[in-house]
Amino acid sequence: MAGLRDEIEELVAFEGRRPGSDAERRAATHLATRLRDEGREAELEHADTRPRWPVAYALLALVTILGSVVSVSAPIPGAALALAGALLTFLDATGTAPLTRRLLGWRASQNVVSREDSGKPGTLVLVAHYDAGSQGAVFARRVEARRAALGRLLRRPIGRLEPLFWAQLAVLACCVARLPGLDATALTAIQFVPTVALILAVPLLVDIALSAISPGANDNASGVALALELARRHGAGLERFDLWLLLTGAQEAIADGMRAFLRRHKRSLDRARTVFVNLDEVGAGSVRYTRREGAILAVRSHVQLVEICDEIAEDDEDGAFGARPLVNRAASDAAAARSAGYPAITITCRDVLDLVPDHHRSSDTPGRIEEAALGRALGFCDELLDRIDAQLGPALREPERSAAPPTP
Predict the structure, then answer these.
(1) Which of 53, 81, 157, 353 shows its CA 20 to 30 Å from the CA of 45?
(2) Is 286 helix (H, G, I), strand (E, B) or coil?
(3) Do residues 294 and 336 touch, judged by C-beta distance below 8 A?
(4) Other beta carbons within 10 Å of 34
(5) Is residue 102 within 8 Å of 50, Cβ to Cβ?
């Protein structure tokens, strides 16, 4: 695993890899050069990003708070403001239309793309983002542990953006209840609770916007290193798939880099013949593979890819991988690809509490990377790529029969 650790250290040396930053551009150039030195084609593709999502969500929280206050004396304008806040948050968090972020400016980011073009029936795209996210109090270990505990209590994981959106929906519901003329003391008390939650959310979001950038060793230099190693092992070696490598920028800005890639290649990448495997935070813990992904609406990972991962986990009699399914409540690159109609899944790692160690914290350094975790992720992904080639590949020999993803 020494080679993987060296890759991680080299990428972490580009400090402050914020989406759209100079450090991110230098890191992209470094990765493209590394791929060319290894004999692979590599190019940089431009991607627009609007990275000020914490400020955008803080503004939308303020709009909802204003709507809550106004609704007490003017129900219709208050309900309209609350609706606007909740709707704009939903459109941005799902990647449908980042309207609020458009008002806050844009930056240039890059995707590093390495293609194979040997005429094989399918395309398998290994994805890993190389940018790093902001720190902030909301990512503190104690806060993360409480969020995970609440998720276990509710028997569903809680995404970091969900409390904000739930509070906005609760305020909206109360404002709508006032439209027929209902103005009870109980309703005011109920409306007060989500309004206070939104007031508390505003400084937390501003704190993220003003905080330093994480070193990003686990998130996601580890995924980049794993993707490079898998490309070395399986490049030109799959029987039925050309192996592409996609290292995305601006993933921390609600997967802007992946969305730009999908827009650019929507005509050249056949949804029935292209598979995305996303590698994210694989440097600590045991292997997890996603069943659902998404910050607000969790879309299903591709059924056949999940079934293949289930088979690998079942065949792992000695528990070397420790693989289990996971619901990922985050705006991942695979969630963006899945929403666009492509077969996609994320491979990641978690610790025993299903938390991500050092996520978006200053402690996310190469010294915290677990070589055993990298080894587990590498072994699992080796098996995954081979089985995708063997099980999904045969259905690609006659792609004109179906416009849907290949089925057994």
Answers:
(1) 53
(2) strand
(3) no
(4) 17
(5) yes
Lookup: tokens for 157: 């994981």
Domains along the sequence of the chain with CATH: 2-49+109-135+214-401 (3.40.630.10), 54-103+140-210 (no CATH)
Give me the pLDDT at residue 302, please.
95
Q: Are 42 and 235 in contact (CB under 8 A)?
A: no
Please tell me the distance from the alpha carbon of residue 312 to that of residue 314, in angstroms, as a whole number. Answer: 5
Structural contact between residues 240 and 228, judged by C-beta atoms closer than 8 angstroms: no
Task: Give residue 333's Cα distance to chain centre.
Answer: 5
Mean pLDDT by 10-residue block, N- to C-terminus, for the chain (408 residues)? 88 96 97 95 96 97 97 94 97 92 94 94 97 94 85 85 95 94 85 96 97 96 97 93 97 96 93 96 94 92 96 91 91 95 94 69 94 95 96 70 46
- CB contact at 8 A, 19 and 249: yes
How far apart are alpha carbons 366 and 52 in whole angstroms?
A: 27
> What's at 261, amino acid-wise?
F
Q: Take residue 294 and report the two structure tokens written for it.
A: 């998404």
ω into 220 cis (within 30 of 0): yes
**CB neighbours of 280 closer than 8 A, spacing ≥ 6?**
128, 129, 219, 220, 223, 332, 333, 346, 347, 348
| Three-class DSSP category at 130 | coil
Estimate the share of the chain in helix, then strand, then coil, as percent rounded to the nearest 5: 50, 15, 35
Q: What is the DSSP letter of 332?
A: -
The tokens describing 329, both together, are: 């409540």
CA 355 – CA 361 distance, rounded (Å): 13
Q: How far is CA 181 from the centre of its chain?
A: 43
Q: What burial class does residue 248 get, using C-beta atoms within 10 Å of its C-beta: 0-12 exposed, 13-18 middle, 19+ buried?
A: buried
User: CA-CA distance, 76 to 176, in Å (whole number)?
Assistant: 8
The SS3 of residue 181 is: coil
The residue to which tokens 């219709």 are assigned = 76
Q: 């080679």: which residue's tokens?
A: 3
